[in-house]
Amino acid sequence: MIETYLLEQLDAVARCGTLLAASEELHITQPSMSRAMKKLEDLIGVELFEHRGNRLVLNDYGRIAADYARRILDSQEEMVTRIRMLERSRRTILLGSCAPGPLFELPSILSSLYPDRTISTEVRDEESLLKDLEQRVYQMIILIHKPDDPTICTHPCGSEHLYFSLPKEHRLAGEKAVRFSDMDGESFLMASEVGVWDAVHRLIPNARYLRQGDIGSLREVVRSSTMPSFVTDLTLRLYGLDDSRTAVPISDPEARMTYWCCCRKEDEKRYLRWFQALERRY
Amino acid sequence: MIETYLLEQLDAVARCGTLLAASEELHITQPSMSRAMKKLEDLIGVELFEHRGNRLVLNDYGRIAADYARRILDSQEEMVTRIRMLERSRRTILLGSCAPGPLFELPSILSSLYPDRTISTEVRDEESLLKDLEQRVYQMIILIHKPDDPTICTHPCGSEHLYFSLPKEHRLAGEKAVRFSDMDGESFLMASEVGVWDAVHRLIPNARYLRQGDIGSLREVVRSSTMPSFVTDLTLRLYGLDDSRTAVPISDPEARMTYWCCCRKEDEKRYLRWFQALERRY
DNA sequence: ATGCCTTACGTTATACGTAATTATT
DNA sequence: AATAATTACGTATAACGTAAGGCAT
After folding, report:
1. Claim to verify: residue A28 and residue A43 sit in the same structural domain
2. Could B75 and A72 be called an inter-chain contact, meaning their C-beta atoms sit closer than 8 Å?
3. Which of B33, B150, B153, B200 has the most crowded CB, counting CB atoms within 10 A?
4. Any idea what the CATH number is for the domain that residue A122 is in?
5. Is the CB of A18 under 7 A from strand C?
6. Nucleotide nearest to B29 (CA to C1')
7. CATH number at residue B21
8. Using one digit for the tens of pLDDT, what is the confidence trace for A88-134?
9. In a shared domain, residues B75 and B96
10. Contact at 8 Å (CB) between B117 and B62?
């Protein structure tokens, strides 16, 4: 049987052109290289090199052997990375969501139910989420549209309602409820990553947005500003509201999102406790 | 990098079910096996086995690894056999022929022109010969039909004429020439391997044949028998004819074969001297 | 002389075997 | 008790590095 180090060295020679260059790439000495190539020839029983001047070049057989070597090494590489990736994905739950809101509280619940697994989250658009759920990139995803794919199972996992966060001095701060159109032409502070809410914000005519990266720094900016902004019932529960501001509910139907937690049908049993917890909660 | 012996041992474990059985198959000890599997797990960084009772069984990752191992080992096997076969085929000239006649003298001429190469010969049907010429099984083949494939080049290499070998007492022994039909209903001694001549012999109505394996033993049987048999100009040149017999030419056109020596176009230059020798001779 | 490969020799790493131990049936 | 795997230890194979030699350009 031909050991891998021989194929590795052959591959290096094929790529580098000389034994010396190859030996330097692999951080071994020329004699080692020389011996290895001779050993390969012995094992196969066919000469793989021809002497051309003072250098050694692969002959037809050597080139064939080098091609095989490359493929075999690639195959080994693929083997270890695939197994490592697979094992990693089984130790972690990657939860994708079409909006940040559901990721405020759900990950910690997941974490308490599956303490031996790492929970990671990502916000992306629904189409990508669904595709990568099927591709096993995600273990679970949260959407606002129930997918009608029979290989995917769906459970309700809460909702989110959008409010204007207005300084107390704002002309509409005293209202019970307002509509998007009431804020026509105003400028808003908002988070840059809001997922599906992006489409909703566009419902305000002639609005302008100043987007701030993460929610933490957004809150700092909002605190020291009199610009209108947005909050939801979920952000309120998590962070509360500045004393200087009022949260005015938005009455348009688009201001309410209903979330669905989806996983592959085959995984439904695996996450049974999770879905039971969702049932109780919502 | 993962050395081949580890993959070999993993493959054996996957096939045998236990480390013990696998170690026996490979003629090594259990501890060696045990260490190797642990080493594999260390290198990949993922556990490949689960303890079930007092035995070790592959888990999902282990099975994936074993699949890769099998493929990689197969690939290595393929590499060495392919290179060996290729090298062997370049050291030998495998000459196929649709009839034994051309193989009486041509191989020794080939051998004198290419003294460093081994000459092997085979008699097979034209269709198989042509297919395996393209598949590089044969370096050259001899046919009775000029193939019209443009990737194949063709040179005449002689002809062969069939005679009846008749005991002097035979009713037709004195004839200048006879036809197949003149021998209607007779029984013949003949060689079992005659290639394309097989079809010709069937032209004699109601004939019966007693076939003898090799030409040597056929000649022995013929010598001590009064049954009609066959010879050709080529066998006559090689072996002569028994004193007790006469060779009567067969006048049917099917009794004459014209031979063509074919090789792949790409090899024509390689065998130039050979084809020049054929030109001079025929 | 210089660049590249090979040979010879001593060292080290490591895969292996033996023997004893643990764990499960 | 029997079967299977593991641990501990010593051994031997063989891959490697160093140093010297060969053979081209």
Report:
1. yes
2. yes
3. B33
4. 3.40.190.10
5. yes
6. C17
7. 1.10.10.10
8. 989 999 999 999 999 999 999 999 999 989 999 999 999 999 999 99
9. no
10. no
What's residue B260's pLDDT?
Answer: 97
Write down which residue in A33, A65, A88 finishes a domain: A88
Q: Is the dihedral of CA A67, A69, A72, A74 positive or negative?
A: negative
Tens of pLDDT, residue by residue over B242-276, are: 999 999 999 999 999 999 999 999 999 999 999 99
Query: Is pLDDT of B180 > 90?
Result: yes
How close A3 comes to chain B (CA, Å)?
A: 5
Q: Which of A65, A76, A87 comes nearest B2 by C-beta?
A: A76
Domain ranges, residue A131: 89-158+258-281
- Structure-derived torsion over alpha carbons of residues A261, A265, A271, A273, reported in degrees to the nearest 10: 80
Angle CA B57–B62–B68, to nearest 5: 135
3-state secondary structure of A206: coil
Task: Give the span between the Cα atoms of B164 and B166, in whole angstroms.
Answer: 6
**Tally of structural domains, chain B:** 3
What is the arithmetic mean of pLDDT over B26-53?
A: 95
pLDDT digits (tens, 9 = 90+) for B3-33: 999 999 999 999 999 999 999 999 999 999 9
Q: Is A46 within 8 Å of chain B by CB?
A: yes
Distances (CA, A) of A280 to A104, A239, A255, A276, A277: 18, 24, 25, 6, 5
Instruction: Yes or no: say if B189 and B222 are a contact pair by the CB < 8 Å rule.
Output: yes
The whole-chain average pLDDT of chain B stands at 95
